[in-house]
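Progress note, sequence design subtask.
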Protein backbone atom coordinates (compact mmCIF):
# COMPACT_ATOMS: atom_id res chain seq x y z
CA UNK A 1 0.00 0.00 0.00
CA UNK A 2 1.42 3.39 -0.95
CA UNK A 3 1.71 6.25 1.55
CA UNK A 4 -1.09 8.06 -0.27
CA UNK A 5 -3.60 5.26 0.21
CA UNK A 6 -5.83 5.19 3.26
CA UNK A 7 -6.39 1.85 5.05
CA UNK A 8 -10.03 0.70 5.36
CA UNK A 9 -11.75 2.06 8.45
CA UNK A 10 -9.36 4.99 8.84
CA UNK A 11 -11.23 8.19 9.93
CA UNK A 12 -11.25 11.03 7.43
CA UNK A 13 -8.79 13.85 8.09
CA UNK A 14 -10.12 16.82 10.00
CA UNK A 15 -11.28 19.56 7.63
CA UNK A 16 -10.88 23.30 8.13
CA UNK A 17 -14.66 23.66 8.46
CA UNK A 18 -15.28 20.72 10.78
CA UNK A 19 -16.62 21.83 14.18
CA UNK A 20 -14.20 21.51 17.11
CA UNK A 21 -14.16 22.44 20.80
CA UNK A 22 -11.28 23.91 22.76
CA UNK A 23 -11.56 22.75 26.39
CA UNK A 24 -9.46 24.79 28.85
CA UNK A 25 -9.00 23.83 32.51
CA UNK A 26 -7.36 26.06 35.15
CA UNK A 27 -6.71 25.64 38.85
CA UNK A 28 -4.65 24.06 41.59
CA UNK A 29 -2.72 21.08 40.31
CA UNK A 30 -3.18 17.63 41.81
CA UNK A 31 -2.80 14.04 40.59
CA UNK A 32 -5.58 12.76 38.33
CA UNK A 33 -6.77 15.97 36.66
CA UNK A 34 -5.67 15.02 33.15
CA UNK A 35 -7.04 11.48 33.43
CA UNK A 36 -10.28 12.80 34.92
CA UNK A 37 -10.86 15.24 32.07
CA UNK A 38 -10.36 12.60 29.41
CA UNK A 39 -12.59 10.15 31.27
CA UNK A 40 -15.29 12.84 31.15
CA UNK A 41 -14.76 13.52 27.43
CA UNK A 42 -14.68 9.80 26.61
CA UNK A 43 -18.42 9.53 27.30
CA UNK A 44 -19.01 11.69 24.21
CA UNK A 45 -16.75 9.69 21.84
CA UNK A 46 -14.77 12.73 20.72
CA UNK A 47 -11.37 12.54 19.03
CA UNK A 48 -8.35 14.32 20.50
CA UNK A 49 -6.67 16.71 18.04
CA UNK A 50 -4.22 18.60 20.24
CA UNK A 51 -3.17 18.82 23.90
CA UNK A 52 -1.10 21.36 25.82
CA UNK A 53 -0.49 21.25 29.56
CA UNK A 54 1.70 23.34 31.82
CA UNK A 55 2.10 23.61 35.58
CA UNK A 56 3.48 26.85 37.00
CA UNK A 57 3.96 27.25 40.75
CA UNK A 58 1.40 24.53 41.45
CA UNK A 59 -1.26 25.87 39.07
CA UNK A 60 -2.28 23.81 36.07
CA UNK A 61 -3.37 25.06 32.65
CA UNK A 62 -4.66 22.20 30.50
CA UNK A 63 -5.94 22.82 26.97
CA UNK A 64 -7.48 20.10 24.81
CA UNK A 65 -8.75 20.50 21.26
CA UNK A 66 -11.34 17.83 20.36
CA UNK A 67 -13.84 17.14 17.62
CA UNK A 68 -17.40 18.22 18.39
CA UNK A 69 -19.54 15.29 19.62
CA UNK A 70 -21.97 13.71 17.21
CA UNK A 71 -25.62 14.51 17.91
CA UNK A 72 -25.71 18.22 17.26
CA UNK A 73 -26.27 21.03 19.77
CA UNK A 74 -27.84 18.71 22.33
CA UNK A 75 -24.74 16.53 22.53
CA UNK A 76 -22.44 19.55 22.70
CA UNK A 77 -24.58 21.06 25.46
CA UNK A 78 -24.36 17.82 27.41
CA UNK A 79 -20.55 17.77 27.06
CA UNK A 80 -20.28 21.35 28.23
CA UNK A 81 -22.50 20.74 31.26
CA UNK A 82 -20.67 17.54 32.22
CA UNK A 83 -17.20 19.13 31.92
CA UNK A 84 -18.23 22.17 33.99
CA UNK A 85 -19.74 19.94 36.69
CA UNK A 86 -16.61 17.79 36.82
CA UNK A 87 -14.39 20.88 37.07
CA UNK A 88 -16.49 22.42 39.85
CA UNK A 89 -16.31 19.19 41.83
CA UNK A 90 -12.51 19.60 41.87
CA UNK A 91 -12.62 23.38 42.43
CA UNK A 92 -11.26 23.98 38.95
CA UNK A 93 -12.32 26.50 36.31
CA UNK A 94 -13.40 25.36 32.85
CA UNK A 95 -13.83 27.24 29.60
CA UNK A 96 -15.10 25.66 26.38
CA UNK A 97 -14.80 27.54 23.09
CA UNK A 98 -16.48 26.45 19.86
CA UNK A 99 -14.60 26.77 16.60
CA UNK A 100 -13.70 25.09 13.35
CA UNK A 101 -10.76 22.98 12.29
CA UNK A 102 -7.32 22.63 13.83
CA UNK A 103 -4.69 25.24 14.78
CA UNK A 104 -3.58 27.60 12.05
CA UNK A 105 -0.59 26.23 10.12
CA UNK A 106 2.68 27.64 11.42
CA UNK A 107 4.46 30.05 9.14
CA UNK A 108 7.55 29.10 7.17
CA UNK A 109 10.86 29.87 8.77
CA UNK A 110 11.10 28.27 12.20
CA UNK A 111 13.64 29.03 14.89
CA UNK A 112 14.45 28.45 18.53
CA UNK A 113 15.21 31.67 20.38
CA UNK A 114 16.99 31.11 23.71
CA UNK A 115 17.12 34.03 26.14
CA UNK A 116 19.47 34.04 29.15
CA UNK A 117 19.05 36.60 31.90
CA UNK A 118 20.69 37.13 35.28
CA UNK A 119 18.02 38.14 36.16
CA UNK A 120 15.55 38.00 33.28
CA UNK A 121 13.38 41.08 33.69
CA UNK A 122 9.86 41.73 32.43
CA UNK A 123 11.20 44.72 30.52
CA UNK A 124 13.77 42.69 28.57
CA UNK A 125 11.28 39.88 27.90
CA UNK A 126 8.78 42.39 26.54
CA UNK A 127 11.41 43.93 24.27
CA UNK A 128 12.52 40.55 22.91
CA UNK A 129 8.91 39.51 22.25
CA UNK A 130 8.19 42.82 20.51
CA UNK A 131 11.26 42.51 18.30
CA UNK A 132 10.24 38.95 17.30
CA UNK A 133 6.83 40.28 16.30
CA UNK A 134 8.45 43.18 14.46
CA UNK A 135 10.36 40.77 12.21
CA UNK A 136 7.11 39.06 11.23
CA UNK A 137 7.62 36.15 13.61
CA UNK A 138 4.97 34.49 15.72
CA UNK A 139 5.74 33.03 19.16
CA UNK A 140 4.22 29.55 19.12
CA UNK A 141 5.45 28.30 22.48
CA UNK A 142 7.60 29.39 25.43
CA UNK A 143 9.09 27.23 28.16
CA UNK A 144 11.78 27.49 30.80
CA UNK A 145 15.08 25.70 30.34
CA UNK A 146 16.72 26.71 33.62
CA UNK A 147 16.09 28.78 36.72
CA UNK A 148 19.68 28.90 37.99
CA UNK A 149 22.47 29.92 37.83
CA UNK A 150 20.71 31.98 35.17
CA UNK A 151 17.11 32.12 34.02
CA UNK A 152 16.90 30.58 30.55
CA UNK A 153 13.75 30.44 28.44
CA UNK A 154 13.17 29.25 24.91
CA UNK A 155 10.75 30.74 22.37
CA UNK A 156 9.61 28.56 19.47
CA UNK A 157 9.13 31.07 16.64
CA UNK A 158 7.66 30.67 13.17
CA UNK A 159 7.12 33.05 10.29
CA UNK A 160 10.56 34.70 10.25
CA UNK A 161 13.82 33.60 8.66
CA UNK A 162 16.46 32.56 11.18
CA UNK A 163 19.21 34.92 9.96
CA UNK A 164 16.93 37.96 9.91
CA UNK A 165 15.67 37.10 13.38
CA UNK A 166 19.22 36.61 14.67
CA UNK A 167 20.33 39.99 13.33
CA UNK A 168 17.33 41.82 14.80
CA UNK A 169 17.62 40.20 18.23
CA UNK A 170 21.40 40.65 18.48
CA UNK A 171 20.94 44.41 18.49
CA UNK A 172 18.12 44.20 21.04
CA UNK A 173 20.09 41.85 23.30
CA UNK A 174 23.10 44.14 23.42
CA UNK A 175 20.93 47.09 24.41
CA UNK A 176 19.10 45.09 27.09
CA UNK A 177 22.11 43.34 28.60
CA UNK A 178 20.70 39.84 28.05
CA UNK A 179 22.06 36.95 25.98
CA UNK A 180 20.00 35.74 23.03
CA UNK A 181 20.77 32.81 20.73
CA UNK A 182 18.81 32.03 17.57
CA UNK A 183 19.14 28.65 15.86
CA UNK A 184 17.12 27.09 13.08
CA UNK A 185 14.53 24.50 14.09
CA UNK A 186 14.45 21.08 12.49
CA UNK A 187 16.03 17.65 12.64
CA UNK A 188 19.55 19.07 12.57
CA UNK A 189 19.12 20.30 16.13
CA UNK A 190 18.82 16.69 17.27
CA UNK A 191 21.68 15.38 15.16
CA UNK A 192 25.13 14.47 16.40
CA UNK A 193 27.34 17.51 16.86
CA UNK A 194 30.95 18.46 17.30
CA UNK A 195 31.72 21.14 19.90
CA UNK A 196 35.13 22.83 19.74
CA UNK A 197 36.33 25.27 22.39
CA UNK A 198 39.12 27.72 22.85
CA UNK A 199 41.08 27.01 26.04
CA UNK A 200 42.47 30.17 27.65
CA UNK A 201 39.70 32.24 29.29
CA UNK A 202 37.09 29.86 27.87
CA UNK A 203 37.56 26.26 29.00
CA UNK A 204 39.88 27.50 31.73
CA UNK A 205 39.96 30.76 33.68
CA UNK A 206 43.64 31.39 33.02
CA UNK A 207 45.97 32.47 30.22
CA UNK A 208 48.48 29.62 30.13
CA UNK A 209 51.40 31.68 28.87
CA UNK A 210 50.92 34.04 31.80
CA UNK A 211 51.19 31.09 34.19
CA UNK A 212 54.51 30.17 32.58
CA UNK A 213 55.57 33.83 32.65
CA UNK A 214 54.93 34.04 36.40
CA UNK A 215 57.57 31.34 36.92
CA UNK A 216 59.96 33.19 34.61
CA UNK A 217 59.46 36.54 36.36
CA UNK A 218 58.12 38.29 33.24
CA UNK A 219 54.37 38.11 33.90
CA UNK A 220 53.68 41.83 33.41
CA UNK A 221 55.45 41.99 30.05
CA UNK A 222 53.68 38.90 28.72
CA UNK A 223 50.26 39.98 30.01
CA UNK A 224 50.49 43.30 28.16
CA UNK A 225 51.33 41.61 24.85
CA UNK A 226 48.55 39.05 25.39
CA UNK A 227 45.95 41.74 26.03
CA UNK A 228 46.91 43.65 22.88
CA UNK A 229 46.77 40.46 20.79
CA UNK A 230 43.36 39.42 22.13
CA UNK A 231 41.97 42.88 21.33
CA UNK A 232 43.09 42.40 17.76
CA UNK A 233 45.74 45.11 17.94
CA UNK A 234 48.67 42.77 17.19
CA UNK A 235 49.23 39.91 14.78
CA UNK A 236 48.83 36.75 16.84
CA UNK A 237 51.83 34.85 15.45
CA UNK A 238 54.18 37.76 16.02
CA UNK A 239 52.92 38.27 19.55
CA UNK A 240 53.20 34.53 20.24
CA UNK A 241 56.86 34.46 19.26
CA UNK A 242 57.55 37.62 21.29
CA UNK A 243 55.95 36.20 24.42
CA UNK A 244 57.49 32.75 24.13
CA UNK A 245 60.95 34.30 23.68
CA UNK A 246 60.61 35.73 27.20
CA UNK A 247 60.43 32.16 28.56
CA UNK A 248 63.85 31.14 27.22
CA UNK A 249 65.90 29.26 29.80
CA UNK A 250 62.95 28.25 31.99
CA UNK A 251 63.21 24.69 33.34
CA UNK A 252 60.86 22.33 31.50
CA UNK A 253 59.64 20.90 34.81
CA UNK A 254 57.67 24.14 35.26
CA UNK A 255 55.05 22.66 32.92
CA UNK A 256 53.95 20.26 35.65
CA UNK A 257 53.48 23.17 38.07
CA UNK A 258 51.49 25.12 35.47
CA UNK A 259 49.18 22.14 34.86
CA UNK A 260 48.45 22.03 38.58
CA UNK A 261 47.66 25.77 38.62
CA UNK A 262 45.13 25.66 35.77
CA UNK A 263 41.56 26.42 36.93
CA UNK A 264 38.64 25.11 34.92
CA UNK A 265 35.87 27.61 34.18
CA UNK A 266 32.74 27.01 36.34
CA UNK A 267 30.47 24.60 34.51
CA UNK A 268 33.22 23.23 32.22
CA UNK A 269 33.05 19.68 33.57
CA UNK A 270 29.25 19.70 33.46
CA UNK A 271 29.26 20.95 29.87
CA UNK A 272 31.69 18.31 28.64
CA UNK A 273 30.13 15.47 30.63
CA UNK A 274 26.66 16.31 29.31
CA UNK A 275 27.83 16.68 25.71
CA UNK A 276 29.49 13.27 25.89
CA UNK A 277 26.28 11.74 27.28
CA UNK A 278 24.47 13.15 24.25
CA UNK A 279 26.94 11.41 21.97
CA UNK A 280 28.60 14.64 20.88
CA UNK A 281 32.32 14.81 20.16
CA UNK A 282 34.26 17.54 21.96
CA UNK A 283 37.58 19.15 21.17
CA UNK A 284 39.80 22.10 22.06
CA UNK A 285 42.01 24.34 19.98
CA UNK A 286 44.41 26.72 21.64
CA UNK A 287 46.97 29.36 20.93
CA UNK A 288 48.49 28.04 24.16
CA UNK A 289 50.56 24.94 24.50
CA UNK A 290 50.27 21.17 24.18
CA UNK A 291 52.12 20.92 27.50
CA UNK A 292 48.73 21.85 29.02
CA UNK A 293 46.12 20.84 26.43
CA UNK A 294 47.31 17.23 26.27
CA UNK A 295 46.71 16.99 30.01
CA UNK A 296 43.25 18.55 29.66
CA UNK A 297 42.38 16.10 26.90
CA UNK A 298 43.21 13.16 29.15
CA UNK A 299 41.56 14.57 32.29
CA UNK A 300 38.32 15.60 30.59
CA UNK A 301 38.00 12.80 28.03
CA UNK A 302 38.17 15.11 25.02
CA UNK A 303 38.09 13.68 21.51
CA UNK A 304 40.36 16.27 19.91
CA UNK A 305 43.02 18.71 21.09
CA UNK A 306 45.50 20.87 19.24
CA UNK A 307 47.79 23.70 20.36
CA UNK A 308 51.28 25.12 19.92
CA UNK A 309 54.23 23.23 21.38
CA UNK A 310 56.99 24.84 23.41
CA UNK A 311 60.40 23.67 22.21
CA UNK A 312 62.51 21.98 24.89
CA UNK A 313 66.24 21.29 24.55
CA UNK A 314 68.33 19.78 27.36
CA UNK A 315 65.45 20.18 29.83
CA UNK A 316 65.05 23.92 29.17
CA UNK A 317 62.57 26.00 27.19
CA UNK A 318 64.35 27.49 24.17
CA UNK A 319 61.99 30.44 23.78
CA UNK A 320 60.64 29.01 20.53
CA UNK A 321 57.64 26.93 19.42
CA UNK A 322 57.76 23.94 17.09
CA UNK A 323 55.38 22.62 14.46
CA UNK A 324 52.31 24.19 12.88
CA UNK A 325 51.26 27.47 14.49
CA UNK A 326 47.73 27.50 15.91
CA UNK A 327 46.60 31.04 15.25
CA UNK A 328 43.33 32.63 14.12
CA UNK A 329 43.30 30.92 10.72
CA UNK A 330 44.70 27.74 12.26
CA UNK A 331 41.79 27.41 14.67
CA UNK A 332 39.26 27.52 11.81
CA UNK A 333 41.36 25.03 9.87
CA UNK A 334 41.43 22.67 12.84
CA UNK A 335 37.67 22.98 13.32
CA UNK A 336 37.21 21.79 9.74
CA UNK A 337 39.73 18.98 10.24
CA UNK A 338 38.07 17.78 13.44
CA UNK A 339 34.66 17.87 11.76
CA UNK A 340 35.93 15.76 8.85
CA UNK A 341 37.50 13.23 11.23
CA UNK A 342 34.33 13.12 13.35
CA UNK A 343 32.10 12.69 10.29
CA UNK A 344 30.05 15.74 11.28
CA UNK A 345 28.98 18.40 8.73
CA UNK A 346 30.37 21.85 9.46
CA UNK A 347 26.78 23.07 9.85
CA UNK A 348 26.49 20.76 12.88
CA UNK A 349 29.53 22.20 14.67
CA UNK A 350 29.54 24.55 17.64
CA UNK A 351 32.56 26.75 18.36
CA UNK A 352 33.11 28.62 21.62
CA UNK A 353 35.73 31.30 22.20
CA UNK A 354 36.49 34.70 23.67
CA UNK A 355 39.24 36.39 21.68
CA UNK A 356 39.88 37.95 18.28
CA UNK A 357 41.91 34.91 17.26
CA UNK A 358 38.74 32.81 17.68
CA UNK A 359 36.73 34.81 15.14
CA UNK A 360 37.44 32.69 12.05
CA UNK A 361 36.53 29.55 13.96
CA UNK A 362 33.32 31.08 15.34
CA UNK A 363 32.25 32.22 11.88
CA UNK A 364 33.08 28.87 10.26
CA UNK A 365 30.99 26.86 12.74
CA UNK A 366 27.28 26.21 12.40
CA UNK A 367 26.89 28.05 15.72
CA UNK A 368 29.58 30.39 17.01
CA UNK A 369 29.32 31.33 20.69
CA UNK A 370 31.27 34.28 22.09
CA UNK A 371 31.87 33.42 25.76
CA UNK A 372 32.50 36.45 27.99
CA UNK A 373 34.22 37.85 24.95
CA UNK A 374 35.80 41.10 23.91
CA UNK A 375 33.40 43.55 22.16
CA UNK A 376 34.80 42.86 18.67
CA UNK A 377 34.09 39.15 19.16
CA UNK A 378 30.60 39.62 20.61
CA UNK A 379 29.61 41.73 17.63
CA UNK A 380 30.85 39.20 15.07
CA UNK A 381 29.71 35.90 16.63
CA UNK A 382 26.32 34.27 16.07
CA UNK A 383 25.49 34.64 19.74
CA UNK A 384 27.10 35.72 23.00
CA UNK A 385 27.03 34.34 26.53
CA UNK A 386 28.09 36.86 29.16
CA UNK A 387 27.68 34.88 32.38
CA UNK A 388 30.63 33.05 33.99
CA UNK A 389 29.16 29.54 33.65
CA UNK A 390 30.31 27.53 30.65
CA UNK A 391 27.49 24.98 30.95
CA UNK A 392 24.95 27.65 29.99
CA UNK A 393 25.94 26.77 26.41
CA UNK A 394 23.82 23.63 26.92
CA UNK A 395 20.69 25.78 26.99
CA UNK A 396 21.49 27.07 23.50
CA UNK A 397 21.29 23.43 22.38
CA UNK A 398 17.85 22.97 23.99
CA UNK A 399 19.10 20.98 27.00
CA UNK A 400 17.30 21.83 30.24
CA UNK A 401 18.80 22.15 33.70
CA UNK A 402 16.47 19.43 34.96
CA UNK A 403 17.79 16.99 32.34
CA UNK A 404 21.38 17.71 33.35
CA UNK A 405 20.65 17.23 37.05
CA UNK A 406 18.63 14.07 36.47
CA UNK A 407 21.56 12.56 34.53
CA UNK A 408 23.98 13.53 37.31
CA UNK A 409 21.72 11.96 39.94
CA UNK A 410 21.41 8.75 37.92
CA UNK A 411 25.21 8.49 37.71
CA UNK A 412 25.51 8.66 41.51
CA UNK A 413 22.79 6.08 42.29
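Output:
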Amino acid sequence: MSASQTPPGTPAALGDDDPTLLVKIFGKDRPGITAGLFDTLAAYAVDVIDIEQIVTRGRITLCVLVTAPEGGPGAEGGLRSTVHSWAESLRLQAEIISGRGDNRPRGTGRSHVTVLGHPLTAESTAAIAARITGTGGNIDRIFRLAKYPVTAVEFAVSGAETEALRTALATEAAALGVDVAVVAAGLQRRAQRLVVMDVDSTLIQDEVIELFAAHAGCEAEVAEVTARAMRGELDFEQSLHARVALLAGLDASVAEKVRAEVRLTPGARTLIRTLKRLGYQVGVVSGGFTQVTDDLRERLGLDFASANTLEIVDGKLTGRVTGEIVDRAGKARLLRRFAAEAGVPLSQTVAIGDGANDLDMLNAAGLGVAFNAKPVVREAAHTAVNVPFLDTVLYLLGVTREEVEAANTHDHE
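The radius of gyration is 28 Å. Work on this subtask will continue into the next period as scheduled.
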